[in-house]
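Ligand-bound model needed. AR6.
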Amino acid sequence: MLDKIHIIQGDITQIAVDAIVNAANTSLLGGGGVDGAIHRQGGPVILEECRRIRARQGGCNVGEAVITTAGQLPAKHVIHTVGPRWQDGLHGEPALLDQCYRSCFALLDECGLTSVSFPNISTGIYRFPKQDAARIALTRIAALLAENAAITRVNVVCFEEQNADIYRALLEAMRQH
Ligand code: AR6
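Prediction:
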C-alpha cells in the first residue's frame, strides 16, 4: 500500500491525475493559497460549478468534500474539502482533518476515480501544525488505501520544502514498521 503514496514537492495544479484536492473554505467561493491557485489555473468554470453546489446545499461543512470539473487543469476533477482552522487543538481539529481525507476517498470511490493528489490541507492559512497534520494525513491515507484496492496512486503534493521533508521522513518511518 505504502508504495502507492508519492511525496512530490511542487505545484498541485500542474499534475495530471483523476482528481486534485483543494483546501477550500465553507463558502466554496475561492480564496488564497492552493484554493486561489486552483481557481486561477482552472478558470471560471470551477467557480460556476461551486456556485451551483452552494445554491443546492449551502456550501461545504468542515471535514466534508464536494467534487467539480477541473476546467483547464490537467487533472480531470477537483475535490474541494474544507479543513479545520487551527485554534488550540481542543476544538476537534485533528478529527476534522482526518475526516477531510475520509470524505475525499469516499468521493473517489463513488466516482470510480483511481489517482489523486492531496495538498497539505489546513497547514497554510489555517495554521494546523505541520508535523501533526502530516501524521494524520499519512496514517489515514494508508488505512484508506488498505480498504480500497481500486486506488492506484496517491500523490501528496507539498508546496513547501519543509512539508516535503516532514512527509518523506514520516513515510520512511512507516515503511520501516
Ligand atoms: N500546490 C500545492 N500546494 C500549495 C499550492 C500549490 N499551488 N499553493 C499553496 N499550497 P492553504 P489551508 C500549500 O493556505 O491552510 C484559502 O484561502 C500551502 O503551502 O492553501 O487549508 C481557502 O479558501 C500549504 O502547505 O490552505 C481557505 O480560506 C497548503 O497548500 C483557507 O485558505 C495549504 O495551505 C484554507 O487554508
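The mean pLDDT is 98.
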